[in-house]
Automatic annotation (TrEMBL), chain A:
Source species taxonomy: Bacteria, Pseudomonadati, Pseudomonadota, Betaproteobacteria, Rhodocyclales
Entry protein name: Uncharacterized protein
UniProt keyword annotations, A-Z: Membrane, Transmembrane, Transmembrane helix
Regions crossing the membrane: 40-61
Native species: Aromatoleum tolulyticum
Automatic annotation (TrEMBL), chain B:
Catalytic activity: ATP + protein L-histidine = ADP + protein N-phospho-L-histidine
Location within or outside the cell: Cell inner membrane
Protein name, entry field: histidine kinase
GO cellular component: plasma membrane
């Protein structure tokens, strides 16, 4: 029960972190007009953050299953 | 280009495969070996979120707005990270109360209201019809691109007559499929295993197809991501797409609105509710879906921007509709097979959405719109239908066909004016209106029926005025003047700048005003009055679903019904055979043998109502059950009393439990303390009796010899000297005993004096051996000494340590056999501590005696053969050694002698302590 409560709180924290990263003003920091390793900076950054977010959520959700 | 026959044949072949999957899923479910009962299938079925709008529309959106296609998928990712909080609760509530649609959820929460259910259904139908139209449009335009029947990508059929319109047949085929998938038979829980299997299959197909096309464009047409982006950066018009600021005028506010919209949609879209909540087999599956579904969204979006840029680079702007790049790019490169695969992927996305959405909407239409109307007509009430399952199925099937035809109608009337993505967003904004009533209902007890109704109505009206009407007007079916000049010529009523609010894109604008109106009305109207008994009941059942557990919900009305009345009622809607089975199962759970023995209590009524709710909706179930039940609804006060009572009882019992646990713990402690005290008392008694016994022996002999000397003054000198000698030695023994007892008491109470100094242990042992050698010699025994080469210094009380050594050596002397006795004293140094072993070849100590000899007044050996001694030597020695941080122990085998050993740390901390303070 404690463990589940903890996983729930971690997920809410992840949600808040994601909401912060995917919005103004953090978004404006990532929005460069120059290529970033040959890719559009915003596009690449969004996908990287997105993938990291999914990884974190997966870690929390699957860990709680044990 | 491909021939129409090939495309149609491939499509039908694909639909047949789909049907085979569904059929297999259903068959396995009947055998009890479900193929959808695993988290992977569940997560894949959630991907029904990705429709043709994602498949074709995202590319179109990326072609005009760059990264602006992404918020639609970032929102669901965020929403899924909250799944453990929101979705799990929705699943639990729906499962516990047999809720099968959003309309039913809201109606049930706010006092099982027909009116609310109807309103939600209407919003859902109005909101979803354009979305379904969008899917039809995608299939039809995809077909025309593939067959080349229209180069511009606009529809070939729009001008043709209805009978020649292929899209109509597409709609009808999909209707037939949906009926076969979703309304073949009636399920009390509205679950469709076969359909879910097919949807999961479709999700895999559309993902693979899209990835293949993406890979083809990225590496087949161009030379990887770098190449495409380098070319795009070189073109100033395309480079503008790659930054958020330059790609759209909506700004960060628009980005936020879009994310929020998608976040709400993924929870409240009817089809998402259907797959996430209704079709959920096991709550634990949600755990994996929480990350797998967002992962799916990420994968299907990776190639969107490359395809869009690739298409724009290849075709240039304005020649080919970007919505069809997925098809036209492979076609333009002569890859007809790939194009057909892309079309099948799109067909997958479209049919999946249409099937689930129409099933969800038709359930709502049947349970929350048609059934309440039917039940309210007098004729229906009076007529005696024995079995209504056929009627229910008929309504469902009719609703499916009607909804699809409405979608077709919308497609015919307005479909051409808008790109795919705008239609999708309009639908998203419609379902966002459910959010306040749904979320408020799950977490806030105060929401009332009127509040929910006012909120939904206000949100819906504002949505229709600010988003729906402008879209209709823009497609030419309404006079546009109200768009620019406002309703009745009032400027502040302009739909897209309501009250003069400018600077937002139309979606953000509509979302802001509709949600504001919705939430304000919901909260304010709810706060106008206290909830009724029924509302409070439902509020408690919903909000506290986790703390109430899985067992039968509390019943809040007085009433009873005979099973003879309830069973036929359930049988009317679910079929006689099914109803009988359900009641039998219930009877078994209740522990009675047959249905007839069931007690006519509130629990039975609740059971029947829940079963009915699954089939006809909670509000209708309430009406039907109340028609056969003698009941009086409870008022708010009574409900609150029951709730308070229940929660108070819970609180009391919890408190009681805690207290009794604390009491038990305290009792245990007390018992242990008592035992210890008793033990100490017993030890004290033993000690006293031992001391007095030991004192009495010398005293007796002193007294006897003294009396003899006193009585007979004529004793000769030789005897007198002998007697006096005995008296002296006995007195010495007494003194020694008293000293030792005092010593012991002092050490034990910590009042002993310790005179620490630096001593050489080698000297000390040597000295002890010298002192005791004579005793051994007297007995004809040998004392051997084994010393290390170097001196061992430590800081301790010399006299005390000597006392220990003398005690151990003299003990050995007492026990070694006469003439053959050998004792050995050995001093060694190991691991920072010195060790002294005193070994003898005496009789040894029996194992059971090993622990005892260190107790006071307990001597080893046979009671009679025991040598002289006070029985305090070893306990005192042990106390001394332990005082200096060491350890004293004995090893022995009977018949092989004994070895007493002690170790002392070379820099004993206790010895460093105060030399004089311990007085």
């Amino acid at each position: 029960m404690m463990r589940r409560g903890l996983a729930g709180q971690r997920l809410v924290a992840t949600f808040l972190g994601g909401a912060l990263l995917f919005n103004y003003p953090v978004l404006s920091l990532l929005d460069g007009s120059e290529p970033f390793f040959g890719m559009p900076m915003l596009w690449a950054c969004l996908f990287v953050i997105w993938a990291l977010l999914i990884a974190v959520v997966a870690w929390i959700a699957e860990r709680g299953a044990r | 280009m491909l021939s129409g026959t090939v495309v149609v044949a491939a499509s039908f072949a694909y639909l047949l495969v789909l049907f085979a999957v569904a059929w297999y899923g259903d068959r396995r479910a009947e055998q009890g070996r479900s193929i959808i009962a695993n988290p992977w299938t569940y997560a894949m079925s959630l991907a029904v979120y990705c429709t043709a709008w994602t498949y074709f529309g995202s590319v179109g959106r990326a072609a005009s707005g760059g990264v602006w296609f992404l918020p639609i998928y970032l929102g669901p990712t965020l929403a899924m990270s909250l799944s453990w909080v929101v979705l799990l609760k929705m699943i639990r509530i729906s499962r516990t109360y047999r809720i099968t649609s959003i309309a039913d959820f809201i109606a049930s929460r706010y006092g099982k209201s027909h009116l609310l259910g109807g309103l939600v259904t209407i919003i859902a139908v109005v909101g979803m019809v354009p979305y379904i139209a969008l899917q039809l449009k995608a299939i039809s335009s995809g077909y025309s691109v593939l067959t080349g029947s229209d180069d511009s990508g606009v529809f070939p059929f729009a001008t043709a007559s209805w009978f020649n319109d292929g899209t109509l047949y597409v709609a009808l085929t999909l209707a037939l499929f949906t009926v076969l998938f979703g309304a073949r038979h009636l399920d009390a829980a509205e679950r469709h295993e076969g359909m879910v299997a097919a949807i999961a299959f479709e999700s895999v197909v559309k993902l693979l197809a899209f990835l293949v096309i993406g890979g083809f464009v990225t590496w087949g047409v161009y030379e990887g991501f770098d190449d495409i982006f380098a070319r795009a950066f070189a073109d100033p018009e395309l480079a503008a797409l790659l930054s958020l600021k330059t790609a759209s005028t909506a700004g960060y506010g628009g980005w936020f609105a879009m994310t929020l919209l998608a976040l709400l949609s993924v929870i409240f879209l009817p089809r998402q509710f259907q797959v996430t909540v209704v079709e959920n087999v096991n709550e634990q599956h949600l755990r994996r879906a929480t990350w797998l579904f967002p992962g799916y969204l990420l994968l299907i979006n990776i190639f969107v921007l490359p395809i869009a840029l690739g298409g724009l680079l290849y075709f240039g702007r304005g020649t080919v509709d970007p919505d069809t790049f997925v098809l036209s790019l492979p076609l333009a490169h002569g890859e007809r097979g790939l194009a057909l695969l892309a079309f099948i992927g799109g067909l997958s996305a479209a049919t999946g959405m249409v099937i689930v959405e129409t099933i969800a909407v038709s359930t709502m239409v049947c349970n929350d719109l048609v059934m309440p109307l039917l039940l309210s007509t007098e004729r229906f009430k009076r007529s005696d239908h024995p079995d209504l399952t056929g009627l229910l199925l008929g309504i469902r099937r009719g609703a499916i066909v009607v909804v699809l035809l409405l979608g077709y109608l919308y497609f015919r009337l307005a479909g051409e004016a808008y790109a795919l993505v705008s239609i999708g967003l309009i639908s998203f904004a419609a379902v966002a209106q459910f959010a306040p009533a749904m979320l408020g209902g799950m977490y806030w007890r105060g929401g009332t029926r009127e509040g929910a109704f006012a909120g939904l109505l206000a949100g819906f009206v504002v949505w229709a005025y600010t988003l729906m009407l402008p879209s209709v007007a823009k497609s030419g079916w309404l006079d546009r003047t109200f768009l620019d000049q406002g309703l009745f010529g009032q400027e502040f009523l302009r739909p897209e700048q309501l009250f003069g609010l400018a600077g937002l894109d139309s979606i953000s604008h509509a979302l802001f005003w509709s949600l504001t109106a919705n939430i304000a009305c919901y909260v304010l109207v709810s706060l106008a009055r206290v909830p009724t008994g029924q509302e409070a009941t439902q509020a408690t059942l919903f909000v506290d679903v986790f703390s109430r557990g899985q067992d039968a919900p509390a019943t809040f009305w007085r009433g009873s019904a005979q099973v003879q009345d309830l069973q036929p009622l359930v049988a009317r809607f679910l079929g006689a055979e099914r109803a009988r089975r359900m009641f039998e199962t219930y009877a078994r759970e209740r522990g009675v043998r047959s249905i007839a023995e069931l007690k006519p209590d509130a629990g039975l009524v609740q059971f029947a109502e829940t079963q009915l709710a699954g089939a006809i909706g909670s509000a209708s179930a309430r009406v039907m059950v109340s028609s056969v039940v003698q009941e009086e609804p409870l008022g708010l006060d009574e409900v609150m009393d029951i709730l308070d009572e229940a929660s108070q009882v819970r609180a009391y019992s919890h408190e009681l439990e805690e207290k009794s646990q604390a009491l038990e713990a305290a009792t245990g402690e007390l018992r242990a303390a008592n035992e210890r005290l008793k033990e100490l008392d017993r030890l004290k008694d033993d000690f006293m009796s031992s001391v007095t016994h030991e004192l009495r022996t010398p005293l007796t002999s002193i007294r006897a010899f003294s009396e003899m000397l006193l009585d007979d003054p004529k004793i000769d000198l030789k005897d007198r000297t002998r007697f006096l000698g005995i008296i002296v030695s006995e007195t010495e023994r007494l003194t020694r005993l008293v000293n030792q007892v005092l010593d012991m008491a002092k050490i034990e109470s910590g009042h002993a004096e310790w005179h620490n100094s630096d001593i050489d242990m080698r000297d000390l042992v040597g000295h002890a051996v010298e002192t005791t050698e004579q005793i051994f010699r007297d007995r004809g025994a040998v004392l051997e000494l084994d010393l290390p080469d170097h001196a061992l210094h430590l800081r301790a009380d010399r006299d005390r340590l000597l006392q220990v050594l003398l005690n151990l050596i003299s003990n050995a002397a007492k026990f070694v056999p006469n003439d053959t006795g050998v004792a050995r004293v050995r001093l060694t140094c190991e691991a920072g501590q010195l060790r002294v072993d005193v070994t003898d070849n005496g009789p040894g100590i029996a194992p059971e005696q090993l622990g005892v000899i260190f107790e006071k007044f307990r001597q080893g050996g046979d009671e009679r053969a025991r040598p002289q001694g006070t029985g305090l030597g070893l306990p005192i020695s042990r106390q001394i050694v332990e005082h200096f941080g060491g350890r004293l122990w004995v090893q022995s085998k009977p018949g092989e002698g004994a070895t007493f050993s002690f170790v002392l740390p070379l820099s004993p901390e206790a010895g460093d302590g105060p030399d004089h303070a311990m007085t």
